[in-house]
Amino acid sequence: MRTLRKNKQAMYYSLYRAAEEVYEEEGTSTRYIIDEDTGYPIPVEIGTQKAVYSPPVSFSANITSNLNQMHVKAYGIDQSSIYSELICEKGQLPLKVGSIIWRESPIQWDDETQRIPKQSSADYTVVGILTEYQHNDFYMLQRQTPEESASG
C-alpha cells in the first residue's frame, strides 16, 4: 500500500517504560513510617502503580479513522468510532502495544524536568500492531475519551 507524503501528519509518541509504585502523600511530600528493626524511614505505598513513559519523540505518519475490513479481522475487533489506524513505512517506528500518541492535544507532564509525559494527556493508545506486510506497518490506535483523560 502506497501512502502519500503530503497526507502525513506531525505527531509525538512515547513508549511505555515501567510501572512505579504510588506513595501516600502528606501535603507536598511522601509519608514515611520508621522501620522498627532498622530505624530507617520507609515510604508508605497505597497499593497502586502508575505507568511511566519515555520522553516524547516527534514523527510523521498517515492516520485514518477508516479501518479496512481485512485489518478489522486481523485485529479481531469490530469497526468502531473509537479506533484509528496509523500507517507508516516498514520499520519506521518502534511502537509497541501500550505506547501513547499525541496528534492534537498538547503534551502535559508528570515530571517536566525529566520529560516524563502524563499518560492521560495523549490522544491515542496503541492497542494492535500488524507488521506482517511487506512495505508498511499498521498500528491500531484507541482514542482516549475526555472521561479517560480526566480520570487518568
Provide an overview of this structure.
This protein has about 150 residues and is mainly β. It folds into 2 domains: about 5-20 and about 55-150, Thrombin, subunit H; about 20-50, no CATH class. It has helices spanning about 70-75, 145-150; strands at about 10-15, 15-25, 25, 30, 30-35, 40-45, 45-55, 55-65, 85-90, 100, 110, 115, 125-130, 135-145. Strands 1-8-9-14-13-10 form a 6-stranded antiparallel barrel. Strands 2-7 form a two-stranded antiparallel sheet. A hairpin with a 2-residue loop joins strand 3 and strand 4 (about 30). It starts with 8 loop residues before the first strand and ends with a helix.
Blueprint of the fold:
Blueprint lengths: L8 E6 L1 E8 L1 E2 L2 E2 L1 E3 L6 E3 L1 E9 L3 E8 L4 H7 L7 E7 L10 E3 L6 E3 L4 E2 L6 E7 L5 E8 L2 H6 L1
Antiparallel strand pairs: 1-8, 1-10, 2-7, 3-4, 5-6, 8-9, 9-14, 10-13, 11-12, 13-14
Ranges with pLDDT <50 over ≥5 residues? none
**In angstroms, what is the radius of gyration?**
19 Å
Write down the domain tally.
2
Roughly what is the average pLDDT, rounded to an integer? 82
State which percent range the strand residues make up.
over 45%
Helix percentage: under 10%
What's the β-strand tally? 14
